[in-house]
């Protein structure tokens, strides 16, 4: 094991980076639980045929093979028989959640609200913000048969609250961009464009290739007239954080005589979302009519989220409403959900120095050891501190006290305890040293655990 | 996705089972942090050649292949070039930790104490207590160049404390069985048996095939005389929770004239461990001279842990001391560590009903909705409760109140809140309903979060 090099696309953090990631995960979990989401965890593998149902990502799947079945490409499954299903690593948490819902439908209460924080894998070419292994934190609400619209309003607000709770430790503000598939589809159909997905696919290229190229493609590939293409681009240009957006779309539809019932339904939904968001999280949610997001399976609201000042990182939290999360032939399960790209977020936060940990160890106190024969006395002090919830370590060796202080200093441990007839504690940052009682002393609350603080 | 069947060997829990598992993980994490272990997480994959260094488990490895590289058995790696390394899923957390230490040696402070709670994968045939995907919770201390013996005493005690902290929620007591490789090796060499690993391999079969068959094998396979075989079996029969064990071994060695310096070193270490454990965790640690545990790479203390009353489940927490966790040619990193088989533990605890969750949702309060037009008023009550840390949900629909109470009842949510001129809260277990102030009311502390309690 002489040469060790990192694997591109498989991020790992040093202990102080992990403190930051763990804090992010703890804040997300706490917020999700405050909103009544139950935590679940699913296995990392799914049958390959289930993973390939979403055509788009099929090429990214990691397929598993048991080593003893070397050379046998078919038999990767339960027991190794050739008839067994091939397994792959999940590439998101939606496919496994849908399977979990079907598998346990009779034992779940609907609407079922769950959060899920796990790693996912995609065999993509690694690049900044794109990993082969990364952590996602998902919330979804799924109904049996139907799911009220109000969840489409609530879920992005839960995410805005969760990400907003990280602002005090240095996360930049987020902006949640919302759209509604019914608006786009209703408008395109009103215009006379039937290939809604085709049009959306072109609109999705706006950020990459610009307005003129998209206009050309709409004409060349979707058979739009120049006027229809212009209308689509006018719609995509509409954005704003209040309900004037709805009026703007209505005016545009009137100008092109493109009004439809579906458009009106979509506008009512989008308007309700913007209005509620404006009241509950002012300035966070913005309607952006060019957001497209895999609209082939989303059927209502769609969401993307950018870090203000880091927009080029792409969306850090995306999702939407789907009428058919899962179906078992008898029942259909509609849902709405969003997924935070935790690794993408944490990677940026660490590389840009936006958040730092006050230390990389949980330890608040290092108990010095006078000599190895009295190690038991130091252990006893440590046990007393731990019994009061103080993370405590004991010096590795009975070296000179100066060396033991260095052990604490290298790790960022703020206090060193010297046992003896009279116990003393030294704050190694200030140098202050005072006599203390092992039965009662605790460090100040702000030093008890490593904290995550905003970078410079 | 019409037919959904569970995959054997890939355990998943319903939400109330996950509450139990999460509690176990939270208690482990808290205990590890109290003892100064830093949390890290490593990627799920390692280069295949690294995974295969431990010969014994090589057949269990899951190898990864990117789907678009179908038919190309070699190229599973970074970018797909044929020269890239094949990757496999890690089968434990020790191999990845060793690699992490080498990769980051210059940026870690030694002795480095870390905990790591992650899934691992083994392509074994599934059976009770053996999974293909399972969660492990590991602690290790690793030194650069050397590592003091006292860590071999401390680490099993940390695990005993962590598992002991779960007794109040229904975990049976644990018994940590300890041995020391130097004792066995010193004794066998003193007897004149040179193939220490061979002897240990036979001794390891005691529980499966019994004393007589092992005696036969020691003679037939290891070339022992009947007297040497009897001596080995006498050693393996020694066990006890105080230092008389050390005396027993010394007497045995004198009887066979099998004393060696290595044996004395091992006995001193084992005695120190038993003594310290007797003082710090009375009755938990038992010396058991037949514990062998992959002694091909352990070099000092070895540990196994059984749940009292569930011994046939096998060890739920194992580990030991290894002089060479990792080596980069220049430096050697000795370590000592233990690993809790969390999935094995949780699976048993759930199937035997030893622990149950008071509810499967985090939600303490369900706010009823009088009619959809006043949903915002219910949302406001929920926001006020959440701001005080009360997990709160709002009813999915403005159904009749009786139906909304059923929504809470099905989920085990203890309180339903009725907003209005006068706000009221009903404890649906007792039926008691009282007028409350949304600005101040909180549920009793014991109802705030789901709790894990001992089963019947």
Automatic annotation (TrEMBL), chains A, B:
Enzyme Commission code: 6.1.1.21
The family database entries (SUPFAM superfamilies) matched by this protein are listed as:
Class II aaRS ABD-related, Class II aaRS and biotin synthetases
Matching entries from Gene3D superfamilies are given as: Anticodon-binding domain (3.40.50.800), Bira Bifunctional Protein, Domain 2 (3.30.930.10)
The answer to whether the entry has keyword Membrane is: no
Single GO molecular function: histidine-tRNA ligase activity
Q: Which ranges of the sequence are coiled-coil?
A: none
Q: What class of enzyme is it?
A: ligase
Task: Name all Aminoacyl-transfer RNA synthetases class-II family profile domain ranges.
Answer: 15-362
Q: Which UniProt keywords apply?
A: Aminoacyl-tRNA synthetase, ATP-binding, Cytoplasm, Ligase, Nucleotide-binding, Protein biosynthesis
Q: Which InterPro entries match?
A: aa-tRNA-synth_II (IPR006195), aa-tRNA-synth_II/BPL/LPL (IPR045864), Anticodon-bd (IPR004154), Anticodon-bd_dom_sf (IPR036621), His-tRNA-ligase (IPR015807), HisRS-like_core (IPR041715), HisRS/HisZ (IPR004516)
Catalyzed reactions: tRNA(His) + L-histidine + ATP = L-histidyl-tRNA(His) + AMP + diphosphate + H(+)
Oligomeric form and interacting partners: Homodimer.
Protein family per UniProt? Belongs to the class-II aminoacyl-tRNA synthetase family.
The protein's name = Histidine--tRNA ligase
Q: What is the protein's species of origin?
A: Isoptericola haloaureus
């Amino acid at each position: 094991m002489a040469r060790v090099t990192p694997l591109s696309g498989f991020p790992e953090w040093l202990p102080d980076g992990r403190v930051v990631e763990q804090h992010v995960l703890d804040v997300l979990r706490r917020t999700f639980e405050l909103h009544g989401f139950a935590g679940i965890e699913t296995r990392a593998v799914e049958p390959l045929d289930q993973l390939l149902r979403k055509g788009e990502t099929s090429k990214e799947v990691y397929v598993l093979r048991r080593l003893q079945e070397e050379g046998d490409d078919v038999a990767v499954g339960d027991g190794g028989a050739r008839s067994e299903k091939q397994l792959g690593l999940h590439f998101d948490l939606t496919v496994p959640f849908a399977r979990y819902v079907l598998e346990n439908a009779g034992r779940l209460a609907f609407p079922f609200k769950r959060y899920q924080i796990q790693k996912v894998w995609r065999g993509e070419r690694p690049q900044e913000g794109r990993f082969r292994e990364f952590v996602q934190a998902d919330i979804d609400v799924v109904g049996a048969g139907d799911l009220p619209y109000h969840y489409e309003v609530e879920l992005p607000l839960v995410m805005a609250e969760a990400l907003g709770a990280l602002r005090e430790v240095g996360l930049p503000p987020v902006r949640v961009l919302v759209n509604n598939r019914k608006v786009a589809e209703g408008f395109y159909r009103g215009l006379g464009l039937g290939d809604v997905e085709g049009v959306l696919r072109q609109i999705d290229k706006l950020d990459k290739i610009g307005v003129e190229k998209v206009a050309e493609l709409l004409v060349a590939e979707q058979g739009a007239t120049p006027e229809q293409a212009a209308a689509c681009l006018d719609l995509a240009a509409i954005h704003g954080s209040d309900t004037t957006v709805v009026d703007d779309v209505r005016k545009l539809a009137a100008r092109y005589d493109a009004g439809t019932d579906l458009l009106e339904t979509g506008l009512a939904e989008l308007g309700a979302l913007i209005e509620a968001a404006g009241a509950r999280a002012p300035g966070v949610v913005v309607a952006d009519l060019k957001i497209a997001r895999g609209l082939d399976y989303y059927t209502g609201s769609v969401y993307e989220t950018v870090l203000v000042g880091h927009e080029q990182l792409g969306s850090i939290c995306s999702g939407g409403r789907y009428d058919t999360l899962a179906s078992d032939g008898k029942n259909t399960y509609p849902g709405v959900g969003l997924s935070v790209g935790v690794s993408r977020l944490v990677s940026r936060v660490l590389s840009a120095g936006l958040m730092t940990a006050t230390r990389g160890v949980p330890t608040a106190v290092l108990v010095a050891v006078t000599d190895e024969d009295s190690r038991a006395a130091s252990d006893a002090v440590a046990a007393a501190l731990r019994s009061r919830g103080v993370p405590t370590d004991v010096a590795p060796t009975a070296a000179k006290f100066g060396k033991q202080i260095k052990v604490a200093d290298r790790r960022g441990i703020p206090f060193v305890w010297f046992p003896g007839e009279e116990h003393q504690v030294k704050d190694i940052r200030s140098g202050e040293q005072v006599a203390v009682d092992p039965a009662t002393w605790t460090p100040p609350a702000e030093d008890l655990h490593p904290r995550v603080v905003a970078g410079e």
